Amino acid sequence: MWAPLAETVAVHVADANQVLFWREGDGWVGAVSRLSRHWLLVDGGPRLADPTATEVQFGERHKRCVLDA
Length: 69
Known about the structure:
The chain is mainly beta. The protein is 0% helix and 28% strand. The chain has strands at residues 9-13, 18-20, 22-24, 27-29, 38-42.
């Protein structure tokens, strides 16, 4: 994951523990089990979708934001 300004990057896996990533150059590296339900946490901020995900599931209370260009 490319995040050169981040101080910490972690992944929270549903029904499991949080996994810390480690810095390699401008990016962050880590691993989770294939097909796991997980989200990224950057500098303790809100949950983020994994940009390499091939499928994304939204919870019941998920709110979509529509930006007006």
